Amino acid sequence: MRENLFKEALLNPKVFTVTWELVPGRGARETIQENILVLAKQAAQGGKICALTLTDNPGGTPAMSADFMGGEILKLGIEPIVHFTCKDKNRNQIESQLYALDRSGVRNILVMSGDYPVSGYQGRPAPVFDLDPIHVLQLVSDMNRGLEYPGIKGLVHHQPSEFFAGAVVSPFKATEAEQMAQYYKLKKKVAAGAQFIITQLGYDARKFHEVLLYVKQNGFNIPLIGNIYILPYGAAKMMNRNELPGSVVTDKLLAELDRERGDSDKGEGARVLRAARMYAILKGMGFSGVHIGGHNIQYQQVERIISQGEELIPSWPDLVKYLDYSIPNGFYYFERDSVTGLNKATPVQRRNRPLEAKVEYTYSFSKFFHKLMFMPGKNFYSFMKKVSGKLVGTKLEILFHKLEQLIKVIIFDCKDCGDCALIDVAYICPMSQCPKNQRNGACGGSFEGWCEVYPGKKQCIYVRAYARLKEKREEAQLGDNIVPPCNWDLYQSSSWINFYLGKDHTSKNQNNHLSIKSRV
After folding, report:
1. Whole-prediction pTM value?
2. Which residues touch 435 (CB under 8 Å, ≥6 apart)?
């Protein structure tokens, strides 16, 4: 197989890698698609850009397939990085898409949840979030080893793929719960096989430094790339209103951009200078590279940012003050260093900080009920296991299921998936309470604690789960175990019976844990 020049550059500590984001846009043979190929050719010939990233339906609206455009760009002599989102397709389609990318020679993918769909042909499309980024990273890791699965004649073993898969993290969250949820999920992404990390979009130098320190302190020995977005006022207004979820633009920054519009060049020089300062700061801090993006950006502007950024690197500590767009009263993981304006290596004390969500009485009730009924070797576990075995296949099984469903609908708004993840998210159902069905942690779209899809109406379930667990000093468990995707073979069946008979993921994990414990 051919060399992966992006992977080689990013894993070389002597190389500072620069990638550039292109947006395929809606259509097949429209001006935007032709322009992208022109820009890609310029980048390939210019030699400053190591790889071009291609977005996948950004903002939740339809666009040209990033996969196909990646193949087109590969022919121009430059590495593509396809944004591989988990939305709009189930696990079979995701596996199929990975086969096609592998076959076409596209090796680099950036795995993320994806924006919630907001528009489409004749109305809003049905949201599909069958797998989350953790599951896709696991699938990619298995494919890189040579995917195995049972076939008609026995075990099938595929030839290994050569994907170089990255993931995303946002260090720019406003609240403690949101930020910790991002970092706990990052831990799972690394465990699942992420080979590089790109930050979400923000303009706070201290937050960039925070995620760099967090990665180092936790021993995540993978490259970290900082996101630089060349920010015009129009896009900034949308981000400031959270209309592009996950992108953080504060009121202070928006006001500065508004003033810069009055410059003779309508603020272009100020935007490029801001990006060049970010480039210098990120390289000076020790990031492995930068990811440059922006609407209607020309290749010449990208080259200006790189050249100006390189000139500013010797004075990067003095530039930190120009990237001071912190969220008012926002949470930081580390204590502030008053000398540098960045962070000390000491985490802040979170224990006495107030909870950011109400802990309902149902949480204590759920914990008590779980201990009473579902802990092996205790209380009613053995009795319920025997009863479940006798109920299977009888008319009483239907009545038992209906009783369970009634109880769980009232308390948890249960969707009857049969492979219950309540215990994994502090007894909050990710299948009914999270629009993206995230079983392993929060997506990047929350805003000030609110769900991306229901801002101001529903708190992110991981903000609520964090509060419940923190009250018991158990919040770290949000990053401990990878929760498998829902097994839809069990849909509309009793999750209680499935648990007692060892069919669901909770019982299988529990049995594995007990088996390991018995051998120690």
Report:
1. 0.94
2. 116, 127, 129, 451, 452, 453, 454
Strand partners, 150: 155
* 271's tokens: 């935007």
Is 60 exposed, middle or buried (CB count within 10 Å of its CB: 0-12, 13-18, 19+)? Answer: buried
Residue 379 lies in a domain: yes
Establish if 384 belongs to a structural domain: yes
Is residue 258, in this structure, part of any structural domain at all? no
Q: Note the pLDDT tens digit of each residue in 220-262.
A: 999 999 999 999 999 999 999 988 889 999 999 999 999 999 9
Angle at 221 (CA atoms; ends 326, 478), nearest 5 degrees? 65
Q: How many CA atoms lie within 13 A of 85 on its CB side?
A: 25
The total number of structural domains in the chain stands at 2
Mean pLDDT of 492-514: 84
Which DSSP string corresponds to 237-257? HHHHTTSSTT----HHHHHHH
Boundary (domain end) residue, out of 134, 169, 204: 169
Domain end point (choices 127, 154, 169):
169
The DSSP symbol for 58 reads G
Average pLDDT, the chain: 93
| Cα separation, 203 vs 285, whole angstroms | 15
Looking at this protein, which amino acid is placed at residue 17? T
DSSP secondary structure letters along 288-309: SEEEEE-TT--HHHHHHHHHHH
Q: How confident is the model at residue 512 (pLDDT cuts 50, 70, 90)?
A: low
Query: What b/e string do you get for 379-391 counting C-beta neighbours within 10 Å, with b at 16 or more?
Result: eebeebbeebeeb
Mean pLDDT in residue range 70-80: 94
Round to the nearest angstrom and report the end-to-end CA distance of the chain: 43
Which residues constitute the domain of residue 83?
1-169
Does 121 map to a domain?
yes
Tens of pLDDT, residues 303-322: 999 999 999 999 999 999 99
Structure tokens at 30: 């429209």
